[in-house]
Design brief:
homodimer, seven-stranded mixed sheet, Rossmann fold, 20 helices, globular
């Protein structure tokens, strides 16, 4: 078989089932090999950022690795922004990047560039295959690197001649190390710190936000009175239904300061110490209250769920706090124009049981998180790396991982313009993705930041860089241009009707919610 | 003034007039400073690849540097694909990339990454400013680096605190070195090689493809009988009108082999030795005929035009060959379905005098180059680095550089989907860009490459990765969604009518030509 086929057979044996691809000439052998390994499904994206974002979304939901197939340095570069999010989400993603034939690199043909230099900032593991004879083992190593707890991005550069060469066969999957058990001393230290103290909290991230992790954390809360809060941008946060109510770290550092005020112990479970998203003058990088103690129960690569359960036992928690059945909020039946809060609460009131909500709603969606606490059980996926353009792509991959669930991409219009091509893949694959575009026709966060920087009324150039209203984007046209039916809503009633219909559809749908402050 | 303002004032003093921007929070000081330096025009792109491609197109036409303004690593990453083309085009582009405050980097906040590692593969010069006091000089150095002959990409990483800090003022522009004169011995060697020999050729690239360069080359041809051909993907090729007829190196290596057959001398003027675009089994990297001599008259960084004029004098050429007035080809008045050749010849017959033709038409446009030789005088810009998604963005920047000329983006549908957001900037800026989308609804080049690789009938997965017909993209909807009027044409008559009307408009227009073989 060819080296390309050996790569794919190695991946299939390791449990890989999907390859998000935007190939070119140097990946032709891999494209051809996909027909020999039908257990790996090829999904075409028309832009590489769709492929990498979809791989991230798939990995977050399927909890197994996804492949991307990308075309040399420039093709890989287009995938980087969403790989940055995948890296912060600890998503197991394996990039297969074609390259010039080994013997052709020195010719410096137009598409030649240093792919490894591009790959390192978003990859925990980078390798360039040197010979066809090594290609299968390189693939096995790449997959193992992506799966090494807590998961991450591995990039394997595959020269075209190595893909084309004849090889003996696939490599065996590498034996994987499980997440590292947490030493008893760390559990005891956390238990001692939280026991009998009213000003403690557990900062939950990564695997702490699974159902198992949260239920264990809730036991600790019930026994010690500590607070529970999640990181600001969790990769996947199971919420709603009878799950415990867990708060979320705010975004702006001044809000974090008041949120954390009075805490003297912060126990980290799968999350890093809270830091500011950006460095603002006069505000610190690290946001734990001055004088507080921060201690790590479990790092991201540890057995976070096991550590929380051990902590619950150590503090003498009961088996499980009784779950209070949630009463669903009724949709706000008020009529009228759309505001950020009313859009968020309509969504929270209508999302179906088992929804996957991919949130890149930015400023519009601030009210969604509290509103959705009482929604039916759902998975909540956020912008882990802050690299916008994640939503449409991540939703696409999540829908491929979970064909029986409805995916709702709660999406700002500015961010959507970085990866609009994802809609085409949703149409082609007939995915149940409802994209709720929040059209405020502005980079609203930049307008807020400008005011925060002391410039409440920017001049014409600064204003022009934050306004998306000249001309207004028309998401109904854009969606239809990519084969996705679409509806525009300018009032609460029409938004509710449109969302209900879109959720009931079997394929994708775009609902453009034009906010009352659009363009301001 | 702030460091940010000092950067912009330094750039303005060095002749910079435009900044293609997609900023974020870490660039807020630069955004605010743009209102204090109104001689630099801020142009918003909704995706960073639009900014970098526009900067490339602007630099190719204006022959002066363009700024981009980008948001940390992920924002820069989205710009890389078109920076790769700019790098191969030797376009002077200066990237200003905001970064976390110097004191905040160690916190490893979500958007933090190694920007320099991302920048190096596409930049001839990379620097991270360390302190506000150095920021102005860093900006002057960046601009000088971009302008150093033959021009290139410079990337300056600007931590937010350095932008915000108070500084004394701008830096003086760095004195620039002119293109290096070519030593007399090289001119004499080339003259000796070409004189009295029938099997010689000059390979023209870069500055050799200006009017001055080509007229000098034509004098050499008239005196020696040598052939003239351009590199396959020139950055800017002046053509049409009474300019000399210069051939173009083919794309596929087997065609290059027959094209170059029989040559025993190839003189390089601003172009590298011809190499294959990709390494194909059984074909060489370097495409000069076996046994031929390749000698460099002028490298890209040399005074290429001066060298060609010196060569013309050395071979005893007359002042200038008499120009034969061109007779304009009539449009092919045949009716019927659209084929690649008929689309190309309609465009060549209708393009107005002084057009700028940005060609990313890929397989559809193969017939355009010969057809346009008899068109009125025009500038022809191509995909220098092979990184697709260049056309819509490059056309946007070219139109901003030359507001009095019509820009025609001759564009494949597959490539257009990498940077469709450029249409929005064209609408906002009311640019005279006619985008002629060649809708064959396929990655046709990959279908050709698959057949070349010995797989004439690919299986279902390989086929699905090259077909863009399920669903078909609707470019009329897509364009209108971004505020650009659009027309669909399915026959030669309707294409001709639509193109004539689009060319006459004062703002942008999209014409979608649906080819008769679309979706096959």
């Amino acid at each position: 078989m060819t080296g390309a086929e050996a790569v794919l057979r190695t991946a299939a044996a390791a449990g890989v089932e999907v390859c998000f691809a935007n190939p070119g000439t140097t990946e032709m052998a891999l494209v051809i090999a996909l027909d020999h390994v039908p257990s790996i499904r090829a999904v075409l994206g028309l832009f590489e950022g769709v492929c990498s974002g979809a791989a991230d979304g798939y990995a977050r939901m399927a909890r197994r690795p996804a492949l991307t197939l990308l075309h040399l340095g420039p093709g890989f570069a287009n995938a980087i922004a969403n790989l940055h999010n995948a890296r912060r989400a600890h998503s197991p993603v394996v990039n297969l990047v074609g390259d010039q034939a080994t013997w052709h690199r020195d010719a410096d043909a137009p598409l030649t560039s240093d792919i490894a230099s591009l790959a390192r900032p978003v990859s925990r593991w980078v390798r360039e295959t040197r010979a066809a004879s090594q290609i299968a083992q390189d693939a096995a190593d790449a997959i193992a690197a992506a799966l090494e707890p807590p998961g991450g991005v591995a990039t394997l550069v595959l020269p075209s001649d190595c893909q084309e060469g004849e090889v003996a066969g696939p490599a065996k999957p590498t034996a994987l190390r499980a997440a590292r058990p947490v030493p008893t001393e760390r559990v005891e230290a956390a238990a001692a710190a939280l026991r009998g103290r009213s000003n403690g909290a557990i900062h939950l991230g990564g695997a702490a936000l699974t159902e198992r992790g949260q239920r264990a954390a809730a036991r600790v809360r019930a026994a010690t009175g500590c607070r529970l809060f999640s990181e600001c941008f969790p990769a996947r946060f199971e919420r709603g239904g009878d799950l415990p109510d867990v708060a979320r770290l705010p975004y702006f550092p001044e809000r974090v300061a008041s949120f954390l005020e009075g805490l003297d112990i912060i126990v980290l479970a799968g999350a890093p110490e809270p830091v500011a998203f950006f460095g603002y003058r006069g505000m610190p990088s690290r946001l734990s209250p001055p004088g507080s103690r921060v201690l790590t129960l479990a790092a991201a690569e540890d057995d976070v769920e096991g550590a929380l359960e051990a902590l619950a036992d150590a503090v003498g928690a009961l088996a499980a706090p009784t779950a209070s059945p949630t009463s669903r909020a009724e949709p706000p039946r008020a009529s009228g124009a759309l505001t950020p809060d009313s859009v968020a609460s309509v969504l929270a009131s209508l999302q179906p049981d088992g929804a996957i909500v991919v949130d890149e709603s930015a400023t519009t969606g601030l009210g969604y998180f509290p509103a959705a606490a009482r929604a039916p059980r759902h998975s909540f996926l956020t912008l882990t790396g802050g690299s916008i353009g994640m939503g449409p792509a991540c939703a696409t991959g999540a829908a491929i991982a979970c064909r029986d669930r409805v995916v709702i991409n709660f999406q700002g219009d500015g961010g959507a313009m970085y990866t609009p091509q994802a809609l085409w893949t949703q149409a082609r694959e007939q995915l149940r993705v409802v994209t709720l575009i929040c059209s405020n026709r502005a980079y609203r966060i930049l307008q807020i930041e400008s005011a925060r920087a002391g410039v409440p009324a920017p001049g014409p150039q600064a204003a022009s860089l934050t306004e998306l209203s000249r001309p207004p984007l028309d998401w109904v046209h854009l969606a239809r241009g990519m084969g996705v039916p679409a509806t525009r809503a300018g009032s609460l009633e029409s938004l509710e009707d449109a969302l209900r219909r879109a959720i009931a559809e079997q394929g994708p749908h775009v609902v453009e919610a034009v906010l009352s402050d659009a363009g301001r």
